[in-house]
Amino acid sequence: MAKPFYAWLLSVFICTGMGLKADDVNGKQTQTFPVKGVLQSINFTNLTATIRHEEIPGYMEAMTMPFHILSTNEWMTLAKGDSVEFKLTVGDQKSWISEVRKIGSSTNVAGPVAIQSKKEKKVAPREFTFTNELGQAVTLGQFRG
């Protein structure tokens, strides 16, 4: 009598996917949302794209924010102000966007995508004098390269 019950229970788990979504990544549950928005900038160094997106029903209100991107290839033909649609995948620890597709161009924003990088403004260190192991005065300016 117990065997048919366990067989039925097993079939229920198999049919329902044991409560897991099809979009599991490395054994972790993820949620996927279709999103539309307008591209503001791309940062190829950090692999992020800043997009002014519409409301994501059941998840997030409309806002402008950076999203992690997996590949830069699909972004090479896009320009600032392009209307795009994409898939947002959200996991426990990280999220990313993929399957980006241009659906139009915005006439409100002109110009190419602002490509940002981590190049920081170089600032010379303050001049500082110290004594080395030989008892000689040494300044940081002596070590410019």
Would you spell out the secondary-structure blueprint of this structure?
Blueprint: H1 2-16, E1 31-43, E2 48-53, E3 63-68, E4 82-90, E5 95-105, E6 114-115, E7 129-131, E8 137-139
Parallel strand pairs: 1-6
Antiparallel strand pairs: 1-2, 1-4, 2-3, 4-5, 7-8
Describe this protein's structure:
The chain is mostly beta strands and about 140 residues long. About 10% of the residues lie in helices and about 35% in strands. It has one helix at about 1-15; strands spanning about 30-45, 50-55, 65-70, 80-90, 95-105, 115, 130, 135-140. The strands form two sheets. Strands 1, 2, 3, 4, 5 and 6 form a six-stranded mixed beta sheet that branches. It has a two-stranded antiparallel ribbon with strand order 7-8. A hairpin with a 5-residue loop joins strand 7 (about 130) and strand 8. Mean pLDDT is about 75; it is low at about 10-25 and about 110-115.
Major sheet attributes? 6 strands, mixed
Q: What structural class should be given to the helix and strand makeup?
A: mainly beta
Tell me the number of strands: 8
Note the gap between the termini.
Answer: 83 Å
Tell me the radius of gyration: 26 Å
Continuous helix count: 1
Residue runs with pLDDT of under 50 for 5 or more positions: 12-24, 108-115
Mean pLDDT: 76
Task: Spell the H/E element sequence.
Answer: HEEEEEEEE
Helical amount: 10-25%
> What is the overall shape?
elongated
Measured by DSSP, the beta-strand proportion falls in: 35-45%
